[in-house]
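#struct-help
A.M.: can someone run this one for me? Single chain, 191 residues.
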Amino acid sequence: MQDVIVVTGNLTAAPEPRTTSSGAAMTTFTVASTERRLDGGRWIDVHTNFYRVSTHRKLAEHALASLTKGQRVIVAGRLRLKEWEANGRSGVSADLDATAVGPDLLFGTTTFEKDAEMSGAAQSGGVHPSHSESTGWAAPGSSPAPTAGTSGDPAGDGTGVRDGAGALVGAAAGVGEGGWDAPDGSDTTPF
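D.P.: on it. Structure tokens below:
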């Protein structure tokens, strides 16, 4: 049994490219995840955990091309605790074999560029028919209305979560143009 966890934190250094013994691409990097607490009306850093992250194959290529030192990321993967001993010291390292890596959009924006090789393979087979017409991805700043029967249109009647003028309706109406608004309507966060 393996534990799967999700970690948010910052890269402590630039990702390093490697190659496995079988010749597959591998990229490694370290993520520092700091716990923050509210103390007397101020947020303070309490403790930092460091995770060594390994990515493989396409995820490794994309991580190497996309990530930089200091960038805030979200990493999901299998946790492995490894005991180590060196120079008379010993300890335990927390290693993550990543299955997904992405930017933490709470702290900034990004532009997604779909891998042409991956999208070509997906369209030639192995994709659910409802996803073959459109990938669901939109250019930055655009808000396409969902089409009937897609996951963005839960009713399946073409109304989606936007009205005819493109305004948000229903539960999605609580979402501001920049994303989910804070409960008091401000854009500030405690971290």
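A.M.: thanks! The chain has two domains: 3-105, 130-173.
D.P.: also worth noting: Residues 124-139, 142-164, 166-191 have pLDDT under 50 and may be disordered.
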